[in-house]
Write a structure and sequence with these properties.
Layout (H helix, E strand, L loop, with lengths): L1 E6 L2 E4 L4 E9 L5 E8 L6 E6 L6 E3 L7 E6 L4 E6 L8 E9 L14 E2 L3 E6 L1
């Protein structure tokens, strides 16, 4: 089992920045690929970014490319989502998710992930 706990959400003005953290406990964090997802009211959950277990590969949705950055510190069992130049349309509940992998693969489908955090609200005001 892996337990994930997100933090760092909040209210920010458009153009501002937030850094979300995803702290993991349980199994070896470095064996898990991490994904970041968001869900806005009335919309389906969507992937915003993903990072491989060794940090070599990353993925970003087109809507956040160039503004969001995924990173991780395996020694601290923590993954991060740095969000810059935030827009009102980025308002959503953000989730981190983990899936065991023996390779450096990244995953973008929510159905692939085994473990999920509780989510953290990000609200961007115009």
């Amino acid at each position: 089992q892996v337990q994930l706990l997100e933090s760092g959400g909040g209210l920010v003005q458009a153009g501002g920045s937030l850094r979300l953290s995803c702290a993991a406990s349980g199994r070896t964090f470095s064996s898990y690929a991490i994904g970041w997802f968001r869900q806005a009211p009335g919309k389906e959950r969507e992937v915003v970014g993903a990072i491989a277990r060794n940090s070599i590969e990353t993925y970003y949705a087109d809507s956040v490319k160039g503004r969001f950055t995924c990173s991780r510190d395996n020694a601290k069992n923590t993954a991060y989502l740095q969000m810059n130049s935030l827009k009102p349309e980025d308002t959503a509940v953000y989730y981190c998710a983990a899936v065991y992998t023996s390779t450096g693969t990244i995953f973008t489908s929510s159905g692939t992930y085994e473990y999920w955090g509780q989510g953290t609200q990000v609200t961007v005001s115009s």
